[in-house]
Amino acid sequence: MSFNEGSGLDTSQVSDLRGGMGTKIAVGGGSLVLLIASLLGIPPQLLQGLGLGTEQSTQQQAGGAGSITEECRTGADANERRDCRIVATVNSLNRFWAAELPKYNMQYPLPRTVLFEGGVSTGCGQASSAVGPFYCPVDRTAYFDTGFFDQLTGQLGAAEGPLAEEYVVAHEFGHHIQNLTGALEYSQQDPQGAASGAVRVELQADCYAGVWAANATEQVDPATGEPFMKPFTERDLQVALSAAAAVGDDRIQQASRGYVNPHTFTHGSSEQRQAWFVHGYNTGDPAQCDTFNARDLDNP
C-alpha cells in the first residue's frame, strides 16, 4: 500500500469518461503490443509474427461499480482500487509540482486528467486504447485507460505493485512540465534515434517521475496532519524500475522484431529509463534532469 488510509482524495482533478461516456472501440488480445508499438514507433506489421497483430472484438467494462466521486474518498480507497489510486497519485503530483515550479519562477497550471476506456476525443485528435497512456499538449490533459496496467504486467512482464502504476502517471505529468518549459517540442524536431530529442524528452519525463517519488512522502495532508503517502519500500522501487524497463525500446523491439535497432529508438533503452528514474529519485531535484545536455544517456 502507498497512501495513508485517512488521507482525503480530490476527485475534481480527474474526469471519469468510462462506462459508456467515452467512445467504445473494440480491442483484443494483441492490442497491448500494438499500443506499445505505437508509442515506440514500431510499424504494426512487424508484430504479425508474434501472433498479436489481429484484434478480436471484446467488450470493455468500467473500472468497478460506482463513479470515482462516489468510490474514491480516502487513501484507503486508493490502496484498494486502481482508479482511486490514479486520483490519489494525481493529487500528489499536483501538490508537488504546484509547490516546486515557483522555485524556478514558473507557475503550474493544473493539467486535466481523464480516465477512459476504448477511445476518447482529445485536443490532439481521436485516440483509442491502442495509444496507451498519453499526454496531449494541446488540451494539457493526461489520458489513462486503466486496463493498460493489467497489460503492462500481464503481457510486458512488469512486476505488480502500486508504484508501477504511479510511475506511469508521474511520467505523463512529466510531459506536462515539459510542455510548460518548451522541452516537449524536441520530440517532434528530432523524432528518433538512440540520442534523439524524442529519447531525451522521454528520459527527462522518467527523471521527473523519480523526482516526484523522492518528494511524495514529504507532503502532508492538512486535514489529518499526516503524510499523504507512506515511505516507499525497496520493493516499491523495484516495482517502478520493472515498469520502466518493461517499456524500454530495446525490450519492445526484441519482442516484436527479434532484434534491436537503436537508430529507431524513441523512448530510450530499458537501462536508460531505469537510470534516469533512479537519478531523479536520488537527487529529488528537477534541475538535475537535464537530459538534453547529457553526454552519456546511460549514466546520468
Automatic annotation (TrEMBL):
Which Pfam families would you find in this protein's record? Zn_peptidase
Compartments, as annotated in UniProt = Membrane
Which segments of the protein form a coiled coil according to its record?
Answer: none
**What domain of life is recorded for the organism?**
Bacteria
Q: What organism, scientifically named, is this protein from? A: Arthrobacter mobilis
The membrane-topology field of this record reads: Single-pass membrane protein
**What's the protein called, per UniProt?**
Neutral zinc metallopeptidase
Q: GO cellular-component terms in the record?
A: membrane
Q: Which UniProt keywords apply?
A: Membrane, Transmembrane, Transmembrane helix
